[in-house]
Write a structure and sequence with these properties.
The N and C termini lie far apart (45 Å). By secondary structure, the protein is α/β, with parallel strands linked by helices. It has one domain: NAD(P)-binding Rossmann-like Domain (Rossmann fold), CATH 3.40.50.720. Helix 1 packs across helix 8, helix 3 runs parallel beside helix 4 and helix 4 packs parallel to helix 5. The longest helix is centred in the middle third of the chain and has 29 residues. It has eight helices and seven strands, in the order βαβαβαβαβαβαααβ. The structure holds nicotinamide-adenine-dinucleotide.
């Protein structure tokens, strides 16, 4: 049997890249897609890719195109990991329609149509889906209502999908990280930190129960959990939402 194949969206990003590296280290063949092809080529210098497919996943047609290209190159699909995402924050009354549409299109719609496109191939392998949601998919975050809407939608969509796919033994799970040290977190702090990104990050860390010992989640830690969820040993796990957040949501 040829090595299993994972398709990772947002593979040029912090978590997506770590996930691609983890699967490659575990002997899987990796197909990678992202909006940013230059960053994908940096990943490819490190991780051999069975398919490198730049695409803007806001559009269903693009999602189907990525699947088609992956199947043409790899011939099978055993896991789909949706890690593409964007962050915007701000009060509801002044939030722009463009930012709202972007959050929904990238964080929710792209995962929905990537799953839709991948279902036939995953049925053939009894494969697995992991959607990267967020603690913001489980409860409200102050100042991030639209992001919470996108991630709450993604989390609940994944649970419904798990039920739909259960008769075919295809699994679908959610991983919900807390604040994770990636370019997205740097972007948040730069854009919304009021000129003091370090203070923005310190305020995030102050919410964690570790107190002065709090740190951000590492993308490699998220990747380890995602990799586990795609193994045959995780056959009993579907429709689950795993937090990886130092206990941040435990008391919510
Ligand atoms: N970093 C955090 O603190 C954190 C916490 C919880 C959840 N998340 C979620 O984890 C996932 C990974 O985020 P990350 O922290 O690695 O961020 P990141 O910014 O490092 O990576 C996100 C990737 O998504 C890609 N992307 C954006 N728009 C796209 C589009 N239209 N089409 C295709 N690709 C597109 C970007 O090019 C980027 O490479 C996201 O869904 C994010 O919402 C992040």
């Amino acid at each position: 049997m040829s090595a299993p194949v994972v398709l990772v969206t947002g593979a040029a990003g912090g978590m997506g890249g770590a996930i691609a590296r983890r699967f490659a280290a575990g002997g899987w063949r990796v197909a990678a897609t992202d909006l940013d092809d230059a960053a994908l080529s940096v990943l490819e210098a490190e991780v051999p890719l069975v398919a490198r497919v730049p695409a803007d996943l806001r559009f269903a047609e693009a999602c189907h195109g990525v699947l088609g290209e992956t199947m043409a190159r790899a011939g099978r699909l055993d896991a789909l990991v949706n890690a593409a995402g964007v962050w915007r924050e701000g009060p509801v009354e002044s939030f722009t329609e463009a930012d709202f549409d972007l959050l929904i299109a990238v964080n929710l719609k792209s995962a929905f149509f990537m799953c839709a496109a991948a279902i036939p191939a995953l049925r053939a392998t009894r494969g697995a889906i992991v959607n990267i949601s967020s603690d913001a998919g489980r409860h409200g975050n102050v100042g991030a209502a639209a992001y919470c809407a996108s991630k709450g939608g993604l989390t609940n969509f994944t649970k419904a999908l798990a039920l739909d796919l259960a008769p075919d033994l295809v699994r679908a799970n959610v991983v919900s990280p807390g604040d994770t040290a990636t370019p997205m977190l740097d972007f948040q702090a730069e854009r919304y930190g009021g000129g003091d990104p370090a203070a923005y990050k310190a305020a995030l860390l102050a919410r964690y129960p570790q107190g002065t010992r709090a740190r951000f989640v590492r993308p490699e830690e998220v990747a380890e959990l995602v990799f586990f969820l795609c193994q045959p040993t995780a056959a009993a796990i579907t429709g689950a939402d795993y937090s990886i957040d130092f206990g941040y949501t435990a008391g919510k």
